[in-house]
Design brief:
Elements lengths: L7 H6 L14 E5 L3 E2 L6 H19 L3 E9 L3 H9 L4 H18 L6 E4 L3 H16 L3 E11 L4 E3 L4 E6 L2 E6 L7 E11 L4 H9 L4 E2 L1 H10 L5 E3 L1 E3 L8 E2 L2 E6 L1 H6 L1 H10 L7 E7 L3 H15 L6 E5 L2 E3 L2 E2 L10 H20 L6 E3 L1 H24 L15 H6 L1 H18 L3 H22 L1 H4 L4 H26 L4 H6 L18 H19 L7 H10 L7
Helix pairs in contact: 2-11, 2-17, 3-4, 5-9, 5-10, 6-10, 7-10, 11-12, 12-15, 12-17, 14-15, 14-17, 15-17
């Protein structure tokens, strides 16, 4: 039996260098998706926004922030009322039905939600009215009239310069350049939010590095800000009856975007109680709604006396066969079918591995399966099974020798430390695709390391060095699993438990983590078992072989 003492000081010295603390450490942070339009069925773009926000929330928690997550449904507006009427339903009944579909999707995808906002909830109506009154008290809302090109399908006015004429069936039609939807000229009484009075503050906010990610969208927002003048923030009730009434103006309802954007404050108040007004807001959103989140929303917050968002995380759209998904083309991917076929872990891993912030992403079921199998099952799974495939054992813990010096000089540990810093940097900037690529590279290095070192042979001549090799690989594997937790969620916990750890054990943020007594006791049993098998001339190639060999070796029956 091996009997050597471990030098804890040397082991702890391996992890002295660590990534810088996250700027949100110790802060209340609300991570949000947009609230999704209740009229349309969920698509994979909705799912990606939720998965990206969920990974961000989990990562911020691991980095020491008091982070919470919200999503929900946007349930007001003329289109909602029209859709309900066409089906012989009341608007509330229609919204109840569709909102449940979104909630079911996020449950199936294991999105780590802390609350779900519906704009028809009473506390949200109160919050939207509160925000309106704050803007009114600041003399930023005035009575007026508004005339211009109005896109009914987008529920917004469009400047004439952002429209274009096109031919449709022999008729000339004016369309919004941005959405491609028709516009019509209307004149109506309204309330004007004088957003242009806050342009200087909003521009300063948008210019601050790290506020809008990626940087390309920061420049886009800065170009949009000068074009935002007075914004029509109400609609006549005779035209749009399904909405939140404007305070002290019962003949009007709030503009749907003022209503919808206020949901983030509703969620903050729900989740952070008395400290809700100081919550840092991190918004995950698609590039198509950046104007509302990057121009209108900061102005509303500033005008109402709140802090502007801490970050906007903007992502591209999902394509299939290099084309925009469309029912007419027949290339739409149903998120429910996707989750049913591949499960939540594989779906989340693929979408965050392939999803881009600075461009559009390509969806492929073949690539999804290949990514998950080759990078998680074959690479990480193989590393864990090679190291700990025989570990369902019993017995008293033993102590093994001083191999800390070899750990210090291990090329794998040096590589792992560099990888850990890179993963932190990428995850901190919400670039999960690049971070996951780095984790995969680290797993390839670990598999290559253990193949080259051949500890199952080396243990015959140098037990301490062989055990150190396996120890190093187990540390890399356990830390990789912790780094994967933001993406894979609870599914990593059983594997971590199998190697004697959990998300919060040791240093949950890096490849080179600290070591506690329970982990050492567990790993010592592992190494003793490997040593015994090697002395018997037996090599476990995979988990199945390992279980068979354990029962086949009489000398291990006392364990």
């Amino acid at each position: 039996m091996l009997s050597i003492a471990i030098n804890y000081a040397d082991l702890n010295g391996v992890s002295q260098s660590a990534p810088l603390a996250h700027p949100f450490k110790g802060e209340n942070v609300l991570v949000s998706t947009p609230i999704f339009y209740a009229n349309a069925a969920p698509h994979i773009g909705h799912l990606y926004s939720a998965l990206l926000a969920g990974a961000t929330k989990r990562w911020l928690v691991q980095r020491g922030a008091n982070a919470r997550m919200v999503t929900g449904t946007d349930e007001h507006g003329a289109k909602v009322a029209q859709a309900a009427q066409s089906r012989g339903m009341e608007p509330q009944e229609w919204c109840d039905q569709n909102s449940q579909i979104f909630q079911r999707l996020f449950e199936l995808a294991n999105v780590p939600l802390d609350t779900y906002i519906r704009t028809t909830h009473d506390d949200h109506k109160s919050m939207a009215s509160f925000v309106w009154n704050k803007l009114n008290e600041a003399n930023l809302i005035k009575d007026g009239s508004y005339e211009g090109w109005y896109a009914q399908d987008d529920e917004q006015f469009v400047p004439e310069a952002e429209t274009e004429m096109t031919e449709n069936g022999g008729n000339s039609v004016r369309l919004s350049k941005e959405s491609g939807r028709p516009v019509a000229w209307i004149v109506e009484k309204t309330h004007i939010f004088e957003a242009d009075k806050l342009s200087k503050e909003v521009t300063g906010w948008a210019r601050k590095q790290g506020t809008i990610i990626p940087e390309m969208y920061s420049k886009a927002v800065q170009n949009m800000i000068p074009k935002q003048v007075g914004v029509s923030v109400s609609r006549p009730k005779e035209r749009v009856s399904w909405g939140i009434p404007v305070p002290d103006s019962p003949e009007s309802v709030m503009y749907v975007w003022v209503d919808a954007l206020s949901n983030y404050l509703t969620a903050s108040q729900r989740l952070f109680s008395k400290s809700w007004q100081s919550t840092k807001l991190v918004h995950v959103l698609g590039k198509d709604i950046i104007r509302f989140h990057g121009v209108l929303w900061p102005a509303i917050l500033k005008g109402a006396g709140f802090c502007m968002p801490a970050q906007l995380v903007v992502h591209g759209h999902w394509m299939k066969d290099h084309m925009k998904m469309s029912k007419s083309i027949g290339n739409v991917v149903d998120p429910f079918s996707l989750l049913e076929a591949f499960g939540s872990s594989a779906t989340a891993y693929f979408m965050l591995r392939e999803g881009k912030l600075d461009g559009d992403s390509e969806f492929s079921e073949i690539q999804l399966e290949e990514r998950f199998n080759s990078e998680l099952a074959d690479c990480l799974g193989n590393l864990v099974s090679r190291c700990v495939g025989l570990l369902k054992i019993r017995g008293e813990p033993m102590r093994i020798g001083p191999f800390a010096e070899e750990m210090h000089h291990s090329s794998l540990l040096q590589s792992a430390r560099a990888t850990s810093f890179s993963v932190h940097e990428n995850f901190d900037s919400h670039n999960f695709a690049k971070g996951l690529e780095e984790i995969h590279r680290g797993m390839l290095n670990a598999n290559r390391f253990i193949t080259e070192r051949e500890p199952w042979k080396r243990i015959k001549s140098d037990k301490d060095a062989a055990i150190a090799d396996v120890w190093v690989c187990l540390r890399v594997a356990s830390s990789a699993l912790k780094l994967l937790h933001p993406v894979l969620g609870e599914s990593v916990k059983p594997t971590l438990a199998h190697i004697g750890q959990d998300i919060h054990s040791a240093d949950a943020n890096g490849f080179v983590c600290g070591i506690d007594d329970s982990t050492i006791s567990f790993f010592i049993q592992v190494f003793f078992l490997i040593s015994t098998l090697c002395q018997q001339g037996i090599l476990a190639k995979n988990m199945q072989d390992a279980n068979m060999m354990f029962h086949a070796v009489p000398e291990l029956s006392h364990l």
